Amino acid sequence: MVTRTEEEEVNRLENQVENGGGGVWEYLCLVHKLKLRRSDMVLKHGLSILNDSKKRSALGPEEWTLYEQVAVAAMDCQSIDVAKDCIKVLQRKFPGSKRVGRLEAMLLEARGLWSEAENAFSSLLEENPFDQVVHKRRVAMAKAQGNTSAAIDWLNKYLDLFMADHEAWRELAEIYVSLQMYKQAAFCYEELILSQPTVPLYHLAYADVLYTLGGLENLQTAKKYYASTIALTGGKSTRALFGICLCTSAIGQLTKGRNKEDKESPELQSLSAMALEKDYKQRAPGKLSVLSSTLRSLKI
Amino acid sequence: MAEDLVLDTAIRDWVLIPLSVVMVLIGVLRYFVSKLMKGSSQIPDPKIVKEGQVIIRARNLRAGANYIPAKSFRARKAYYSNEENGLLHVPKGQAANPQAQMFSDPNMAMDMMKKNLSMIIPQTLTFAWVNFFFSGFVAAKIPFPLTQRFRAMLQNGIDLSTVDVSYVSSRSWYFLNLFGLRGLFSLILGEENATDDTQRMMQMSGFGMDPSKTLGAEKDGLDIVQHEWVLPKFEQRAESVLRKLVK
Questions:
Q1: A280, A288 in Cβ contact below 8 A?
Q2: Which residues of B touch A129 (CB under 8 A)?
Q3: pLDDT digits over A13-33, tens only?
Q4: Domain EMC2 TPR-like spans what residues (chain A) (predicted)?
Q5: Least CB–CB distance from B64: residue in A193, A228, A230
Q6: Which has the least CB within 10 A, A225, A272, A283, B156?
């Protein structure tokens, strides 16, 4: 996760770099450290360092990591030629290196030569079956080809071994949601909540999935998770506020006629409706009428 | 008590300095030889990698149990710790002791032997060399007096009780070099050089850690976790948050 201070620092450095204020290397290091995806910037400024032999040699051994970083950024920007040049330099420096081999395979992937890339990745995995990056590249490749079921297969195989990798769980959850396999997605989101219990994003996504699944029990649980999202974000999540309203109305419809079950927090719905109205008044007064009519239609 | 022994400068030139230089050179050589013998970085056992990951995930479950619904928690608990094929369950017979594991895996034993060989052979050779050529030399004098207790340390190989303790015999000089050059090596060869024997000893003692034991401990920990869903509390908290917001 990137904290706010880190993000501010990156943005400040990016501004400075864009306006020619120096600090390019610090910016690139930070992007590398935080694993940000700002490929266009990395490509532009990384190349400016690499093309300047004086600046390049001043980096010492860091020069090679910069080559790697720029190569990956170039592939991301589809500047295949630049990537090829970078990889060629690295190849000359480290012949037979697996890390360079990975870059080569990624180059094949970037060029869309799927079967060649697949072969390259498989042979890399044969040498080292624990290369997490290669495993993930295979998933990405399956996704890029639109082959979601293969992506799920690869991800499941990967998670069977590296089951504590929450990023992979998140990816799997999103794929499942896109395929409308909500039960599986719910499992993945539970796993994410377990690994990072205080991230409201996962609570929200889990609640969404539960709400979509439907059924009284799921709706009640979903409402609780929307509530926890509100508690964790300090009431700033509009989606969670709407979620509370929708869940309450859906629960009301399901339990209509039967004696009402014990309600732990009867005020939650009216409070979130009020919070929504206040928020809309402040930020989008033009849409207030739409909101109030929507809320009225939800009222039981 | 004999007055000051005068040491020949030839001793300095042909014993003291060569001995130190040889020790340093052998240390460097050992570093490169062990680097060569280490070969390609061996691939860890998939079972061990997986066990580590299982433990992390089970620990997450234990820590965050109250954040997921009771049904999901029960399902996971069964998945980890059921008696038939739970991830954390270690069948009784299979709890292999590390000793047996070590012998069953020839690679591991081979590795240890290589390491030990690269440590022991040069040491025996240099010791024999020093013993043969320089035994009985008084090689140096330290510039301050010492008590009798230091005799065993500084005058190894000289069995004279009348020599002042501040004289250092050549064999003792060898030992001083053997143990005292680590700082110099880390300067020449970088911080994590292979000649660091103490670290290796630590590794060896930590070697016998049994992964199945940690699995069992984690299973016991999971068994006693009481699931108490915190989400209902969150509802009240959300209410109070919203109340503050609306006000």
A1: yes
A2: 43, 46
A3: 888 888 877 788 888 888 888
A4: 100-209
A5: A193
A6: A283
Partner-chain contact B242 A221, CB within 8 Å? no
What tens digit of pLDDT does each residue of A56-110 get? 888 888 888 899 999 999 999 988 899 999 999 999 988 888 889 989 999 998 8
Which residue type sits at A153? Answer: D
Alpha-carbon span B173 to B15, nearest angstrom: 10
C-alpha dist (Å) from residue A278 to A200, A281, A282, A283, A292: 22, 5, 6, 9, 11
The model's pLDDT over B166-215, given as tens digits with 9 standing for 90+, comes to 888 888 888 888 888 878 888 887 766 544 555 555 555 444 456 667 78
Q: Is the distance from CB of B238 to CB of A227 less than 8 angstroms?
A: yes
Task: Classify each residue of A185-201 as buried b or exposed e, where b means 16 or more C-beta atoms within 10 Å of its C-beta.
Answer: bbbbbbbbbbbebebbb
Size of interface A-B (CB pairs under 8 A): 104
Residues A245, A297: Cα–Cα separation, whole Å: 11
The token pair at B242 is: 């919203």
Helices A166-178 and A132-144 sit at what angle, rounded to 10 degrees? 10
For chain B, the domains span: 9-246
DSSP bridge pairs for B91 = none
Are B215 and B96 in contact by the 8 Å Cβ rule? The answer is no
Phi, psi of B22 (to 5 degrees): -60, -40
pLDDT above 60: residue A44: yes
Q: Rounded to a whole number, what is the distance in Å from the CA of A76 to chain B's nearest CA?
A: 31
Interchain CB distance below 8 Å, B236 and A193: no
Number of Cβ atoms within 10 Å of the Cβ of B89:
15
CB nearest to A272's CB, from B63, B231, B242: B242
Distance, in angstroms, between A282 CA and closest chain B CA?
12
Burial class (CB in 10 A: 0-12, 13-18, 19+), B7: middle
Q: Position of tokens 């980096």?
A: A59
Q: Residues B174, B20: contact at Cβ < 8 Å?
A: no
